[in-house]
Design a protein that fits this description.
Length: 150
Protein backbone atom coordinates (compact mmCIF):
# COMPACT_ATOMS: atom_id res chain seq x y z
CA UNK A 1 0.00 0.00 0.00
CA UNK A 2 1.23 3.48 -0.73
CA UNK A 3 1.28 6.89 0.89
CA UNK A 4 -1.89 9.00 0.62
CA UNK A 5 -1.53 12.80 0.70
CA UNK A 6 -4.00 14.90 2.72
CA UNK A 7 -4.33 18.53 3.75
CA UNK A 8 -1.95 20.66 5.85
CA UNK A 9 1.19 18.66 5.14
CA UNK A 10 -0.15 15.52 6.80
CA UNK A 11 0.01 12.22 4.98
CA UNK A 12 -1.28 8.73 5.58
CA UNK A 13 1.21 5.91 5.80
CA UNK A 14 0.91 2.15 6.40
CA UNK A 15 3.39 0.41 8.68
CA UNK A 16 3.96 -2.18 11.38
CA UNK A 17 4.29 -1.74 15.15
CA UNK A 18 7.95 -2.20 16.08
CA UNK A 19 7.66 -1.14 19.75
CA UNK A 20 4.73 -0.34 22.04
CA UNK A 21 4.52 1.41 25.44
CA UNK A 22 1.16 0.53 27.05
CA UNK A 23 1.64 2.95 29.99
CA UNK A 24 1.83 5.93 27.59
CA UNK A 25 -0.26 4.30 24.83
CA UNK A 26 2.41 5.21 22.29
CA UNK A 27 4.10 3.21 19.56
CA UNK A 28 7.03 3.26 17.20
CA UNK A 29 6.12 2.25 13.66
CA UNK A 30 8.32 0.65 11.00
CA UNK A 31 7.54 1.86 7.48
CA UNK A 32 8.51 -0.56 4.66
CA UNK A 33 7.97 2.17 2.04
CA UNK A 34 10.67 4.25 3.78
CA UNK A 35 13.33 1.53 3.72
CA UNK A 36 12.10 0.10 7.04
CA UNK A 37 12.83 3.36 8.89
CA UNK A 38 11.16 3.55 12.32
CA UNK A 39 9.17 6.52 13.60
CA UNK A 40 9.67 8.39 16.83
CA UNK A 41 7.25 7.50 19.64
CA UNK A 42 3.79 8.59 18.44
CA UNK A 43 0.40 8.40 20.21
CA UNK A 44 -2.21 5.77 19.38
CA UNK A 45 -5.73 7.11 18.73
CA UNK A 46 -8.61 5.91 20.92
CA UNK A 47 -12.36 6.58 20.85
CA UNK A 48 -12.39 8.39 24.22
CA UNK A 49 -9.70 9.68 26.59
CA UNK A 50 -11.29 11.98 29.19
CA UNK A 51 -14.50 11.21 31.11
CA UNK A 52 -15.04 7.99 29.18
CA UNK A 53 -11.76 6.24 28.45
CA UNK A 54 -10.92 3.41 26.08
CA UNK A 55 -7.87 1.23 25.92
CA UNK A 56 -7.11 -1.09 23.04
CA UNK A 57 -3.59 -2.46 23.04
CA UNK A 58 -1.36 -3.04 20.01
CA UNK A 59 0.83 -6.06 19.33
CA UNK A 60 4.35 -5.95 17.94
CA UNK A 61 4.12 -6.55 14.18
CA UNK A 62 0.50 -5.33 13.96
CA UNK A 63 -0.36 -3.67 10.63
CA UNK A 64 -1.45 -0.06 11.24
CA UNK A 65 -2.41 3.12 9.41
CA UNK A 66 -0.81 6.36 10.62
CA UNK A 67 -1.33 10.03 9.90
CA UNK A 68 2.14 11.56 9.82
CA UNK A 69 2.83 15.30 9.91
CA UNK A 70 5.11 16.88 7.32
CA UNK A 71 7.36 14.55 5.38
CA UNK A 72 9.25 13.03 8.32
CA UNK A 73 8.65 10.28 10.86
CA UNK A 74 8.94 12.37 14.03
CA UNK A 75 5.31 13.44 14.55
CA UNK A 76 2.04 11.71 13.85
CA UNK A 77 -0.60 9.42 15.30
CA UNK A 78 -1.54 5.76 14.83
CA UNK A 79 -5.11 5.95 13.54
CA UNK A 80 -6.07 2.27 13.48
CA UNK A 81 -5.05 -1.33 12.93
CA UNK A 82 -5.96 -2.86 9.60
CA UNK A 83 -6.57 -6.34 8.24
CA UNK A 84 -4.45 -7.62 5.37
CA UNK A 85 -3.80 -10.85 3.46
CA UNK A 86 -1.99 -12.34 6.48
CA UNK A 87 -4.43 -11.25 9.20
CA UNK A 88 -7.99 -11.57 7.98
CA UNK A 89 -11.21 -10.43 9.75
CA UNK A 90 -12.40 -13.05 12.28
CA UNK A 91 -15.82 -13.70 10.71
CA UNK A 92 -16.23 -11.80 7.44
CA UNK A 93 -19.93 -11.47 8.33
CA UNK A 94 -21.47 -7.96 8.27
CA UNK A 95 -23.99 -8.93 10.99
CA UNK A 96 -21.39 -10.09 13.52
CA UNK A 97 -19.18 -7.96 15.73
CA UNK A 98 -16.52 -10.06 17.40
CA UNK A 99 -13.51 -9.50 19.61
CA UNK A 100 -11.08 -12.40 19.92
CA UNK A 101 -8.33 -12.26 22.52
CA UNK A 102 -4.94 -13.96 22.38
CA UNK A 103 -5.96 -16.71 24.86
CA UNK A 104 -9.00 -17.68 22.75
CA UNK A 105 -11.59 -15.73 24.75
CA UNK A 106 -14.30 -14.36 22.46
CA UNK A 107 -17.05 -11.78 22.76
CA UNK A 108 -19.49 -11.93 19.87
CA UNK A 109 -22.69 -10.11 19.00
CA UNK A 110 -24.80 -11.37 16.10
CA UNK A 111 -27.31 -8.61 15.34
CA UNK A 112 -29.22 -10.72 12.80
CA UNK A 113 -29.93 -13.46 15.36
CA UNK A 114 -29.90 -11.11 18.40
CA UNK A 115 -27.29 -13.28 20.13
CA UNK A 116 -24.62 -12.08 22.56
CA UNK A 117 -22.07 -14.80 23.24
CA UNK A 118 -19.16 -14.68 25.66
CA UNK A 119 -16.70 -17.57 25.59
CA UNK A 120 -14.22 -16.83 28.39
CA UNK A 121 -11.17 -19.07 28.87
CA UNK A 122 -10.74 -17.88 32.46
CA UNK A 123 -12.78 -16.48 35.34
CA UNK A 124 -15.48 -13.82 35.01
CA UNK A 125 -16.04 -11.26 37.76
CA UNK A 126 -18.96 -8.85 37.96
CA UNK A 127 -18.80 -6.15 40.63
CA UNK A 128 -21.81 -3.94 41.36
CA UNK A 129 -22.39 -1.31 44.04
CA UNK A 130 -26.10 -1.73 43.37
CA UNK A 131 -28.42 -4.54 42.38
CA UNK A 132 -27.86 -7.06 39.62
CA UNK A 133 -31.03 -8.01 37.77
CA UNK A 134 -31.34 -10.82 35.27
CA UNK A 135 -34.58 -10.93 33.29
CA UNK A 136 -35.22 -13.71 30.82
CA UNK A 137 -38.41 -13.87 28.75
CA UNK A 138 -37.47 -17.44 27.86
CA UNK A 139 -35.84 -20.27 29.77
CA UNK A 140 -32.83 -19.79 32.01
CA UNK A 141 -30.28 -22.59 32.15
CA UNK A 142 -27.28 -23.00 34.39
CA UNK A 143 -24.60 -25.62 34.48
CA UNK A 144 -21.74 -25.67 36.96
CA UNK A 145 -19.76 -28.16 39.02
CA UNK A 146 -20.62 -26.07 42.10
CA UNK A 147 -22.92 -23.13 42.85
CA UNK A 148 -22.34 -21.01 45.96
CA UNK A 149 -25.19 -18.61 46.77
CA UNK A 150 -24.51 -16.33 49.74
Amino acid sequence: MTENSTEAGAHGRFGYVSDYDPKRHMARIQFPDKGDLVSSWIPVAVANSKKNRDECLLDIGEHVYCNMMGNGLEAGVVICSIYDDTNKPPTGDADIRKTTFNDGTEILYDRKNKLLKIDCKGDIEIHAKGNITIIADGNMKHQASQIDLN
